[in-house]
Structures are given as structure tokens and as C-alpha cells.
Amino acid sequence: MKYDLHQKKVAILVAHGFEQSELEEPRRVLVGAGAWTPIVSPEGDEVRGWDEVAFSNWFDVDAPLNQAREADFDALLLPGGVMNSDRLRTIPKAVDFARSFVEAGKPVAAIGHGLQLLVEADVVRNKTVTACPSIKTDLLNAGANWAAKNVVADGGLVTSGGLMDVPAFIERLIEAIGEGALQPRRTGSGKVSLSGRLGR
């Protein structure tokens, strides 16, 4: 693999009902590249995934959302899932958390309905993106440019339509993390230690 992501920490933000495969496969590849991939969630100690037609496995939450800070991470991953995205977009802390990565110039990767959180955060304006077709109108109304492609990378914003696009999606995310693709819009305040349980 071209990039070594050791010492890189990628936050995975999810609520109950996230599309499980859209967390597991990107996480597997990121960990294989050396990244640290803590799950951040508003759901307590565990959060439950969705496997196409039903709730599936439980995952440990490594850092509670209310304790998580952008300064602790190098990038953000937003898996999809309708329930997951609908819940996160109603939580101001989740919206602010996602927005802070874009404002800091850090890579953000979103799959399918995961882009709804970025719409709520108003950070897709003038960005070229792709997602599942059902939220195309939401993205256009938020000022984004729609691309009918499997994966799109606009600076450090990497987007895709769903699981079938994950291999190319995660390759572009790793490139973005390795290259530091976005220029920061503000000066960060330095690293802050999380009191949550961080782990791969």
C-alpha cells in the first residue's frame, strides 16, 4: 500500500442503524494501513449496525460524542444508513463535529446517506459529490455539484454511493489522509486527550 497511516486516527461517527458493511469494510482497510479507527457515537457504550434488512451486530463505542473533539483526529468517516443519518443530523453536537473537520481542513469521507449530516452542517456548498440517488435533490438544494460517478474526491471530501463503491472509496480516503488534501481554514488548538475508550 502506498500510504502508511500509522499514528493516524480516523473517527467513525455513527448512531444506531448505520449500514454495518459501510463501517466494517472501510475500517478493515484503514486498520490494515496502520490507522487507529475509534467509533464515536451518541448512543452510550454500544451502537448497533443495520445489515440491509434488519438490525445486526453491536459495536463498542470508543468515545462518547459529547466528549469527542476534532482536534483528536486526523480524518472523519461517515458510514451511511437511513436511521443512522436521520438521527445524527438532529443532534447539534454531531453536526458541529462533522463541520469542524471541514473547517480544520481535514479529510472527510461519507458513504450514501452519510452525506445528509454534511448537508445539515452546510459544508457541501460548491463541492462536487456523489451519494445514493435518493438524496441527490437534498445535495443540490444544499449547493453541491452532483457527479454521476461511483466515487468523487473534491479536495479532502471523499464521497461514494454505497458498499459496491467501497474499494475505490477507501483508496481515495487513504490518499487524502496520506497527502493531507485540504488546506486548513483555521488554526487548530492542538491535541486534546479523549477520556473515552479509544481502540481499533
Brief sketch in words of this structure:
This protein has about 200 residues and is an alpha/beta fold. About 30% of the residues lie in helices and about 20% in strands. It has one domain (about 10-180): Class I glutamine amidotransferase (GATase) domain (Rossmann fold, 3-Layer(aba) Sandwich).
Walkthrough of the structure:
- Strands 6-3-1-7-8-12-11 form a seven-stranded mixed sheet, sandwiched between helices. A three-stranded mixed sheet has the order 2-4-5.
- The model is unreliable at 181-200 (pLDDT under 50).
- Helix 1 (21-32) crosses helix 6 (166-179).
- By secondary structure, the protein is an alpha/beta fold.
- It has a single domain (10-179), classed as Rossmann fold, CATH 3.40.50.880.
- Helices cover 28% and strands 21% of the residues.
- The protein has helices spanning 21-32, 82-88, 92-103, 115-120, 136-141, 166-179; strands at residues 10-13, 18-19, 39-41, 46-50, 55-60, 63-64, 75-78, 108-111, 128-129, 145-146, 151-154, 157-160.
- The two termini are 19 Å apart.
- The longest helix has 14 residues, at 166-179.
- The radius of gyration is 15 Å and the shape is globular.
- It contains six helices and twelve strands.
- Strand 4 and strand 5 (55-60) form a beta hairpin.
